[in-house]
Amino acid sequence: MITDLNEILSTNIKGMKRSAIRELLKYLGQPGLISFSGGFPSPLTFPVEDLKTIMMEVMDTEAAMALQYGATEGDVLLRTLLVERYKRDGFDVSIDNMIITTASQQALDLIAKMFIDRGDYVLVGLPSYLGGLSAFNSYGAQMIGIPMDAEGEDPVFIENTLKDLISKNKKPKFIYLIPDFQNPAGVTMTENRRREILALAHKYDVLILEDSPYRELRYEGEAQRTMYEMDGTGHVVLLGTFSKIFCPGFRIGWVLGHPDILDKIVVGKQATDLCTPPFTQRIAARYIQKGLLDPKIADIARMYHSKQKVMLEGLQKYMPEEFSWTHPEGGLFLMASGPKGLDTNALLLDCIKEANVAYVAGTSFFCDGGGQNTMRLNFSYESEENNLEGCRRMGEFMKKAVLKLS
After folding, report:
1. pLDDT single digits (tens) 205-221
2. What predicted TM-score, i.e. pTM, was given to this entire model?
3. Residue 208 placed within a domain
């Protein structure tokens, strides 16, 4: 082994940190553990039998293509079918506005690689998705957190920050937002708030990176238009994925954007993995083509809505009165907040050991190191029974933790 590994490590890898969520996975094998930690879909949603049939069909009729290298931009049939779905929802897009990526995490990495030099500024939600923060951090971004309320990120803060940074010749490279059922907070940005922030992007000529992995999993309320659909000027890049509505193991995501932006992402992707696996892309395309995806999404939404209601009821019944939590209209997550002085990161291992319940400490999602009294809870993975039992165990544990503060 080389004497001093650190001596030859890149600046980028030195700045990277292990994912707090990935690190929690090592505890998932603990007997009886109820995990609210990962962003895992329920395995019960995986269309195993349909996929068996489609896989054999692809192997019987399209094996030469599906097992070969593919275009970096992605499978033409899959892109065409996805574009048709967006057009059905009123989007003005063509296949030239879409490329396929190896899930949306690769898209986040490629966009960070494309835009961020060390020291560049990026605006992100406070809190925001850990995978996005990790990608931006790995390229040396300086992230500024945008405070949120029940309507989403604060446009006044955004404008004041843009003015200040531009006056110092430090214009941010982009604004990263998750408008629908935000991860981790579960908040959905109102259409009025979307319009305000989009107007700022136009006024100050700043790109918006709109991450949209959960949009089709709505259980309550009215759907809001995406910022990409509202824009029409090329100021928004939209990320989508099959990970929450189909099969995360297929690792299929996509980017909608102006062709000039997509061209640069393609260059970056060619240096990364050449292409997303053609085999899984063609299986996904045939699944859509057979008309199976929309009914499956409807089934998933019904299942997760029931799980969401059980978790909300369990929190209300068992958590200390000092706690509050968001009420998401869809998606997979909600965020709970305890009293000031509570440190959910310090309590995590004890909660796993004593209550046999895992969550993600909120500090992982705050670029400014805040959120010590918060936690993200996932309600999609465990059964309804475990959601309720997990809330009971966690509630008993947190009641003791709150008493120790007094």
Report:
1. 999 999 999 999 999 99
2. 0.94
3. yes
